[in-house]
Amino acid sequence: MSLMQRRQFVKEGIIGLGLIYLSEKGLAVNKDKVNRNFEIQQFVDEGLSQFAYAVYDAKSILLIDPARDVQPYLDFAEEKNLKIIAVVETHPHADFVSGHAELQRRLQIPIYVGKDYLAEFGHKALIEGDYIVLNNSVRLQVLHTPGHSPESISLVLQDQNRNIALFSGDTLLFGNVGRPDLRDTDEGSPSSREALARAMYRTVKDKLSVLEDSLALYPAHGAGSLCASGIRDVATSTLGYERIHNPAFKIKGEGEFVSWILADLAFVPAYFPFDVNLNLKGAENLQSSLSLIDILPTNIPLPSHVLQLDTRPQKYAITSYIKGAIQIPGNGKFETWLGTIIQPGEKFYLISEDEEHLHQRLKQVAKIGYEGQVSGALIYNRFQEGPTELDVNDVLEHPEDYYIIDVRNENEVHKNRIFSHAVNIPLPELKKQISEIRTDKPIVVHCASGYRSAIGSSLLRRGRPDAVIYDFGPAIKNIKP
Where would I find the beta strands (DSSP E) of 204-306? Predict the structure, then answer.
């Protein structure tokens, strides 16, 4: 299913069983159109590849894994003349801040979590086999499914005692299972990567493999999430399809499974542990928290000792340059790179191109709980000439005259090396290695599209002001290895 199709499904509110027919083999969902006593609404946050769900009938909503901004759920409830009666958290999320605590405060509703979820807010703990009831016919049955985290639960949607769908959180994803290394405590701990990898094996073998092929699958993340690699870009699947195509179901031995799931894991952004702890506590109300941020006058000079974060599109680095600022454009995977480059607790000024985008960026910052780190936010549009643009042809004709840094991940470089003598320093590691980078030649930074190279070149300009730094930029997309 294409992104445009997924947006249309979400817009029309027809993510539901008996209404979606996918042509890909194994994905057809309930073609018999049985009468049912519920509907499912999927909410998509594309920036974080995050899914939340409303399971609802003619009166009430059970909300699963809500994002920080709760307004879309409140608007949906109002539009449908429904009442949100409970929130369910499948686990304490690492990659985004949940809105569960705000919904509880505003609506006076319960929050359901797994028994091992060490919540610091009022909650109802669930054990294997418990039920969360929507109406006399529809309920969610709890499965304890550790592996991505020790606390993880999944929810089997039942209508008239018939299993219909699985809300799997980050346990089972489209084409993979959730990675087990995001807690990675001391060896021997229940939350060490090896312990969770073994727990995931048992979850797949003992809990997921026994479920019916016909169950529709609704996880908390889609393609692009760092919670697993190789996630397919679809909005729903079935257990039957995953059983055939997902490698997690094909590996029979525990040792082989552990080796497989621990191989080639992506980096863990710095903000992940911070968000887990924030979700255990329950975040402050979004608008109340954002209202504490000072909006500064346009183009006001900023103190140089505090980090400046330029979230404007890349073209502004040429036409309206801010010396010493770190550039993370607000499009793309802004939240992920913000929480990778800037550490939890590190203060910064946020800069945007206009008022609309300024407030949009602040809401994006709040998705990962960083709004308390913003010393002030402002619009900057003053003309100020930036660094000299790169002569791309000269680099292609005389690459030996430049020190070329490839900031893509190692697996990307192995698949497609663009410059044979380029040094690979993945972007998450660049900040730590800046002092070791040679400056006897002009430095050229490249990635796959120009987004990460913009971040990387700004980090180098800030850390090595004595060097000549070029950003290869989007032109890299036209280069054939």
Answer: 216-219, 237-238
Q: Alpha helix (H) ranges present in 283-421? A: 286-290, 316-319, 334-341, 355-367, 392-397, 410-415
Strands 307-310 and 348-352: parallel
Q: Residue 253: how many CB atoms within 10 A of its CB? A: 10
What is the rounded distance in angstroms from the CA atom of residue 48 to the CA atom of residue 221? 8
d(Cα 249, Cα 427) in Å, to the nearest integer? 33
pTM of this prediction? 0.90
Residue 207 gets which letter from DSSP? I
Contact 169, 177 (CB under 8 A): no
C-beta of residue 43 within 8 angstroms of C-beta of residue 52? yes
Indicate the helix (H) or strand (E) that contains 243: helix 239-245
Whose CA is closest to 139, among 38, 32, 53, 31? 38
Instruction: Give the number of other Cβ atoms within 10 Å of residue 105's Cβ.
Output: 14
d(CA 454, CA 311): 11
pLDDT tens for each residue of the chain, 481 residues long = 344 344 333 333 333 333 332 323 333 333 334 578 999 999 999 999 999 999 999 999 999 999 999 999 999 999 999 999 999 999 999 999 999 999 999 999 999 999 999 999 999 999 999 999 999 999 999 999 999 999 999 999 999 999 999 999 999 999 999 999 998 777 778 789 999 999 999 999 999 999 999 999 999 999 999 999 999 999 999 999 999 999 999 999 999 999 999 998 999 999 999 999 999 999 999 999 999 999 999 999 999 888 999 999 999 988 999 999 999 999 989 999 999 999 999 999 999 999 999 999 999 999 999 999 999 999 999 999 999 889 999 999 999 999 999 999 999 999 999 999 999 999 999 999 999 999 999 999 999 999 999 999 999 999 999 999 999 999 999 987 6
Distance in angstroms between the alpha carbons of the first and the last residue of the chain: 31
